């Protein structure tokens, strides 16, 4: 179990007050992702981080305060990396809301990996355990074990699946062959990802954490330049392990201690759900423990105590965005 100073009664009371969906047509045309509700108008995108949680490409339910954690961690990392790479943020007017410049989303997700791990069908460990020794165009050495550090961090692009389908890992050559990106765009995006990931690894380690892998979304601005969008290094897009006992646990063949949504994935996998069919419902205990982990990671990374806002979320968002209720 994890420890965070937030009162369990606060978490339990929030179980029935989570932000599941939004309906704010005043903000423009709506696009609903797995976690964020996005509204676009006049060249601006308003991203509302709901409390929805997804795993195995399926929305599973809601986690107390998850949207606030995601939005605040994304804001922290966007600010911390602003001198390294451009991003789309204009303002953060609410604990769960970011207002950003509208960009054209690149049609591939860009995933940086530093360890041989994962439980999903598209994970690098799943491929390796089946005998594959080339992953997304990268050659992997023989004799590696689950959760072992890779010789170097690698970029493993993924196609964007339609809702209900699974993403597919692809190589640089396949991305170019499919015409999804130009050579110039791919290499520029790859360089941006490598720099931000290396920065994230160093900063995380300073806080006692290993940034294991992460997924980046990159957009194209109206002038054609690329910038980071959506989120950076949140527990939804990234896998974090505690650094202090990683080596010992790896030597004993034990799973690393993590602070991310891998806990929810593993809980479902232990119940026999690997992404096919209808997922089992998340128990209140699982939802509360997941909330604790999200909050603790936020506190460790930002170095600040997490202050949960327990106001009714839609009324609060309307007020903070100056919308009539």
Please tag this protein with its features.
2 domains, 16 strands, alpha+beta, 9 helices, 5-stranded antiparallel sheet, 31% helix, 7-stranded antiparallel sheet, Phosphorylase Kinase, domain 1, 325 residues, D-amino Acid Aminotransferase, Chain A, domain 1, 26% strand, globular
From the spread of the alpha carbons, the general shape counts as globular
- What integer is the average pLDDT? 94
Determine the CATH superfamily of the largest domain. ATP-grasp fold, B domain
Give the radius of gyration: 19 Å
H/E element sequence:
HEEEEEHEEEEHEEEEHHEEEHHHH
Strand content: 25-35%
User: At CATH's second level, what is the architecture of the largest domain?
Assistant: 2-Layer Sandwich
CATH fold topology of the largest domain: D-amino Acid Aminotransferase, Chain A, domain 1
Count of the domains? 2
Intertermini distance: 40 Å
The level 1 CATH classification of the largest domain is Alpha Beta
Number of helices: 9
Low-confidence stretches: none
């Amino acid at each position: 179990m994890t420890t965070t100073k937030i009162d369990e009664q606060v978490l339990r009371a929030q179980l029935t007050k989570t932000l599941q969906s939004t309906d704010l047509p005043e903000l423009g045309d709506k696009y609903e992702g797995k976690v964020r509700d996005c509204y676009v108008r006049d060249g601006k995108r308003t991203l509302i981080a709901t409390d929805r949680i997804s795993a195995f490409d399926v929305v599973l339910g809601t986690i107390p305060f998850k949207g606030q954690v995601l939005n605040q961690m994304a804001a922290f990392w966007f600010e911390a990396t602003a001198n390294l790479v451009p991003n789309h943020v204009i303002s953060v007017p609410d604990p769960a809301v970011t207002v950003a410049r509208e960009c054209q989303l690149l049609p591939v997700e860009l995933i940086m990996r530093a360890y041989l791990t994962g439980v999903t069908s598209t994970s690098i460990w799943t491929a390796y355990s089946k005998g594959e020794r080339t992953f997304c165009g990268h050659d992997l050495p023989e004799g590696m074990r689950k959760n072992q550090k890779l010789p170097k961090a690698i970029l493993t692009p993924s196609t964007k699946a339609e809702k209900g389908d699974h993403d597919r890992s692809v190589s640089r050559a396949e991305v170019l062959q499919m015409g999804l990106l130009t050579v110039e765009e791919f290499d520029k995006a790859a360089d941006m990802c490598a720099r931000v990931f290396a920065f994230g690894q160093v900063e995380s380690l300073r806080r006692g954490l290993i940034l294991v892998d992460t997924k980046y979304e990159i957009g194209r601005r109206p002038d054609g330049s690329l910038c980071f969008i959506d989120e950076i290094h949140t527990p939804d897009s990234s896998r974090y392990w505690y650094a202090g006992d990683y080596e010992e646990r790896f030597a004993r063949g034990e799973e690393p201690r993590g602070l991310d949504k891998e806990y929810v994935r593993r809980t479902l996998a232990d119940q026999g759900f690997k992404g096919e069919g209808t997922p089992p419902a998340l128990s209140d205990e699982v939802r509360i423990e997941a909330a604790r982990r999200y909050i603790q990671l936020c506190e460790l990374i930002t170095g600040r105590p997490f202050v949960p806002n327990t106001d009714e979320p839609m009324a609060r968002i309307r007020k903070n965005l100056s919308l009539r209720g």
